[in-house]
Amino acid sequence: MSQSPAKPVLSVLIPVYNEEENLPALGEEVHAAVKDLGMTAEVILTDDGSTDGSYEQIVALTRRYPEFKAVRLGRNAGQTAALSAGIKYAGGELIACLDADLQNDPRDLAKLIGKLQEGYDVVSGWRKDRKDAWLNRRLPSQIANSLISWITGVHLHDYGCTLKLYRARYLKPLRLYGEMHRFVPAFAGFLGARIAELPVNHRPRTKGTSKYGISRTFKVILDLLTVKFMDAYMGKPIYLFGGGGIVMGLLGVLMAAATLYKKFFLGIYVKDQPLFQVSIFFLLVGFQLILLGLLAEILIRVYFDIKDKPSYFVRETAGFDPKLAEVRG
Prior knowledge:
The chain is of the alpha/beta class. It has 2 domains: 10-232, Spore Coat Polysaccharide Biosynthesis Protein SpsA, Chain A (Alpha-Beta Complex); 237-305. Helix content is 49%, strand content 13%. It has 11 helices and 8 strands. Strands 7-5-6-4-1-2-3-8 form an 8-stranded mixed sheet, with helices on both faces. Strand 2, helix 2 (54-64) and strand 3 (68-73) form a beta-alpha-beta unit. The longest helix is centred in the last third of the chain and has 32 residues, at 274-305. It starts with 9 loop residues before the first strand and ends with a helix.
């Protein structure tokens, strides 16, 4: 009777998109770093619809290193979807995230685990001495980090650093869409996680090309609106829309009252008062916002009741126990 594989303590998730040149060295470094940890671990590489030979390299790594596993998405769905797929397949009590471009140092995993064992639930890497261009990489990152910290109330120097370690119970319940992967520490903070930040080694990219640029800052601003809504109003959207509707309605009533006062006491006809048209506009908008809030309340209840549906499609896997792969997928 064959024994089933031991349940891993640590799952290392690595999203991969067109990193064919970096994967052999990445596999060697991650394997050595995980081996030195002295705990059972798995390394899950998620190919995010790469158009080069990345998946073939990933499969080769699963054959060379027994702890390596592969997940292949049907198309390029983005880093958030790739991490979501990895989280779903991860079996460890601890989940670490790592970039595939060799700029993160896998040896820093030991430092993150040591910090987590001090009583934290999330340990976020901080690229204190970042080896990237200032204008199109570091400057947008600094702006984004300041905005995220201010809006969410979870203050970190480096939200954009992929190298992070989590207790799995704070990741498994999350449903990540769009470009929400950078906000995961904030989401964990909303759940009450104790969060620490630790300086980590950051290395310059030597092979391949970066997939990010200054345009990400604008995406962060838009995503922040969603994050703030999910934090403050996800359970009660009527408070946001209905509150705005009441304010608009009250302003409309005040403007209408001012118009009537001028009509009856100052003799100014309504047709000569543009404020009257504005009051009607405010009343209509206020009514519509309240209706929108009620519709949002209904949709939120449907959202919490429907069956989970991920934002990605897994084409194939490699290196997993077939029964576990079926359950996690």
